[in-house]
Amino acid sequence: MGGRDTELVLLDENGxxxxxxxxxxPRRIMIKAGGLKNADGSAYIEFGDNKILVGVFGPRDVHxxxxxxxDTGILRxxxxxxxxxxxxxxxxxxxxxxxxxSKVIKEALEPAVMLDKFPRTAVDVFIEVLQADGGxxxxxLSAASVALAxxxxxxxxxxxxxxxxxAADTIILDVNNEEDQAGQADMPIGYMPSMDKIxxxxxxxxxxxxxxxxxxxxxxxxxxxxxxxxKKALTEKYFxxxxxx
Amino acid sequence: MTSISVIDDLKKSQILELLEQGKRIxxxxxxxxxxxxxxxxxxxxxxxxxxxxxxDSEVICGVKIQPxxxxxDMGDKGIFICTAELLPFSHPSVETGPPGPDVIELARVVxxxxxxxxxxxxxxxxxxxxxxxxxxxxxxVVVDYDGNLFDACxxxxxxxxxxSKTPKWxxxxxxPTLVDGVEEDVPITTIPVSVTMGKIGNHVIVDPNGDEWDSxxxxxxxxxxxxxxxxxxxxxGNGGFTYDEVVQCGKTSVxxxxxxxxxxxxVMGARK
Lengths: 245, 272
Hints:
Strand order of the largest sheet of chain A: 1-2-3-5-4
Number of helices of chain A: 4
Largest sheet of chain B: 6 strands, mixed
Order of helices and strands of chain B: HEEEEHEEHEEEEHEEH
Number of strands of chain B: 12
Structural class of chain B: alpha+beta
Radius of gyration of chain A: 18 Å
Oligomer: heterodimer
Shape of chain B: elongated
Strand content of chain B: 25-35%
Number of strands of chain A: 9
Shape of chain A: globular
Radius of gyration of chain B: 20 Å
Number of helices of chain B: 5
Helix content of chain A: 25-40%
Largest interface: A-B, 34 and 35 residues
């Protein structure tokens, strides 16, 4: 998605981005734990203009049976975008992009979930993107962690996710849709702060080795901001009146 | 099933035990890729092709170049698409039918590495703006499997593109028409090289072979360009990396990648 010429000013002379943010400022983030009645755990996230709903079931019986593992539980993740979530209607069938994102989110969550405690069972995570605006995989991963915690599934840590990137030759935090299209690099990061482990990492776009290092650092800072909001979401649901703190 | 998993577990513990002693199961050092053999023009009927062996993993890539409609928002750019597929005889576990998530990820990561490096100057592949452009399709088929298909496919596709010649088309009566007898080199701006590293325990090794691949906790594929910049990255597997490990992997991908790029440059040098 290299630097195509557009009217858009990605970074003005005062260091302000196209949506009014500073270089190290994430978009507005709102996370809510729970919300769905039938799911064992759920979460809703608004990350800028992204709106994503996540429901979790499990640990429960595995169907089809041959997928079950006698040594450990399995995690299954489906990331799906609604046809109305993007400007041009999206075909509702899962695309190759969605299959890949499902896989990387699954692999980002696996180090956090103590699946070995539930052999022969499955934990299913269903991610539905209601509205997309760049950085859905990070928002989805952050919400999925909260939904898993809401389902009471034992976890080593929550995975917080945020993208960093490069636009107008500057390393920026939380790449939005315009910056993804017209910018120079996009690097989604998923990170477990208490474990100091990066569990999701992708990059497209060109970075020098120094920029690469700075980009990972910037992304981790963003993850730590998201992490606090994830904890806040769970605190608000379970310790609402400040009683059982 | 049971007997296979016992052998697997034994092999895994042996691989880890050796790594603790600083050794690998096939005697390589931690940052040493397997022997890479590249044969170009393996499929003369294609516009460019390569047969690549990375250790015992073998991939054939064929490039087809033909006129196509541009993407709606990219009327001033040619098209590049790279795919990957595992042939049924490449491993006993491969099944025919639509590709699973692993194969889809493989194809997308290989495509992304080449695409994001801007290896092919797509702006030179326009027949008529917004109407007709040249499409470069690099299709990889895996013939034999012994781990690390990410790099094997990436090298095969890169070598095949480097050896490709593109025909020339002109618009005549709104139809792209072949100009006879004209063949040009595909416009190349850089040579991307992907380096895949696996993490087993706390050890990070370059170019895992089949047994190492089955024992990995996590992997990372980093593509660098001719300037030594990083242009694409993908982490995979159900483990994680620390910040320091990621930075180290970035450095390794530049140094190991530079050596492999020399081999790919020979392909480019050989074209007439």
